[in-house]
Queue: 4 jobs
Job 1
Amino acid sequence: MDRNFSTNELMDRASSKRTIALISRGVLTLRPPPEPLSRSGSPLHPRLIGLGAPLLIAALATDLAYANSLLFQWENFSIWLLAGGLLLAALAGLAVLLDIVLHRITGIHWVRFSGFSVAALLSLLNALVHSRDAYTAVVPEGLALSAIVSVILVIIGWRGWSVSARQTTNPIISEEAQ
């Protein structure tokens, strides 16, 4: 009789609210899901860095296309890609501050942060170089700056786009591993 009561109680709890089932060591446990946007939620800045970095890397491709074809539209594409990447870099910088204030990250990995900052500053310089007229807007300085920024972003971004010293762990996964 007691066994049926506890089973019914679990079924009522599962049907009354959304729960997550975890199977660890052969035991089924039901727990409510974590709040998706809590103060200790996932950081915002990796998403913004991850969206902006491909734009800055794509500027290298359009610079190469311009250097090979001399069609001025490729230079226009380059400056738009640089502007979009710089806008997202600025938003990512604000998101890092927000993540620190809301305690979504506990510390900053200064090498990664410095690398992303150098890439953003070189891209700003590259945007100024691209504001020149004609062939000198891209070749040789703009092309070199785009290549340097691309190498920095690929090397530093290889392991992810976060500047957090320690990644926050998912409480469900960490409980499951115990």
Job 2
Amino acid sequence: MIPRYYFVVSGSALSSVSPLNAFDGALKEAGIHNLNFVEVSSILPKGVTRLELKREEVASFFEPGELVFAVQARRTGREGEYVSAGLMWGEGVETNGFVVEHQSSATTSEMESYTEEARKELTDVLRSKFQEMARIRGFKTKAPRFKTAEIYLPKGMYGCALTFLILC
């Protein structure tokens, strides 16, 4: 079973009830809330094609309840935290490609200045992990891409940020 296609989605959400409900809201924002996920490691098959699917198209691409394979980055948290999750991936040039994931959380009271700093830190960590994985494997990939999600969790709230690469 070798996937021929992939696409990447992200979402973030808040809930006053629980981290699980925040996760469910983030799945809905990403357009993948009616699917069942099997978490896989970070290998993109040789020759895989990236699909550009809009949120509405994702819902019609799969049957509700369908099992779907995904590389996942997700972080949940509680009030006063800033949570983020991201993926960086590259399709192989003459081999398979790969995906790296990173998620983080931090407590902060200075949201405005922290947001840009946290985004930069997330992409820097993803880039560093990606370069090291390419070095270890001796792979050359097409230009790497990345996608992230983040959210600040105000008082009394739980939250979730997620980014999934779906293989199909």
Job 3
Amino acid sequence: MALTSGLQVDQVTVRFGSHIAVDDVSLTLGAGQVLAVLGPSGCGKSTLLRAVAGLERPSAGRIFFDGEDLAGIAVHKRGFALMFQDGQLFDHLSVAGNVEYALRVRGQRSPKRVAELLELVGLAGYSDRSPTTLSGGERQRVALARALAASPRLLLLDEPLSALDPTLRARLAHDLREILVATGTTAVMVTHDHEEAFAVADAMALMRSGRLVQSGGLNEVWAAPVDEEAALFLGYSSVVDGSVLGQAPGPMALRRSALVVSSDGALSGVVKSVRGTPELTRLEVEVRGVGVVAAVAAASVGVLAGQEVRLTLDRTRTARVGAVS
């Protein structure tokens, strides 16, 4: 049964000849929620987004929005907006002209609306600027304002921040989250960056080789990765058997700070490498019966390569792989 509110993807498959790009994917997204579709390059996430937009026709399955079957509904009649990683601005138009373009194609014109949107994305006073004079982050903010101009029913974001440097990407991801919440926009964002997904979205769908391998709320997926590959892709540093750490048997995912140098630690190992940061020291330690794993020490603790150290496990920095959260 189709949802009466939000997006529903029902057993959708997309084929290109003999290649199956999206394989029997089903997911739902409530109104006003943000979903991150996460996976490595070539996993089918962008193809899924294009199918929702109407740019690719599913070979099987159906897509609904607010209970309406989108089959046969043209791209421009779906009431969706798309934003790509390069923004695709019109350099011959001013910043305001780019934002207003989304209104003009719908027979609307509202300088007030344009000004409101530019203020929303942090570009008040940029109306008369040429896009060619803007930084990458500023261009993406203009693209976002343009995408929001006509109050789309659904905003589709295809790797919107991937072309930016890491510092700018983190800042814009935070701002993007605030803007989507402030406008109550329902959105699907495709990304290969787990940190970006956690910064922007409410829920996550992990794809691999065209298939959906796990979906749910951010905390739900983070707390119980479906398998080792999912855990490593989400940012855990390693997966080991819990029994070698004095825990219950079974695969356990460790964050880079799960093992901490401590004089009374139950584990011991030899430091293989040391890297200092302003807040702590990051180590690689060969632990007996475990192998080489990441660990941390307080910045005030002097640790050298080749030194034997004792480690304690911070259970709050671990997750049971394949467990039900």
Job 4
Amino acid sequence: MPDPSSARDRSESALTEWLRLAAHPATVRRASIAALIVGALLIVINHGPALLAGQLTHQRIAQMCLTVLVPYAVSTVSSVATRKELAKKKDPA
């Protein structure tokens, strides 16, 4: 019967490794650039007319923050997956 504590340890180790890769300076830099470019473009597309009309509400600001966070998260997940894949190819053991 598998030891549940060792499965939990592996899960915690995997999460720690994922977070370490997500916090890597190159990952953060790449995700930040993607978030700024894609987020700004999406804000203009989705909120441009309201911004030009001066209709800036707390709800709209929250939506705009999420608009920037989504590309950051997507880029981070993609970068971590790529780093893990490259590490596996480098060390197949």
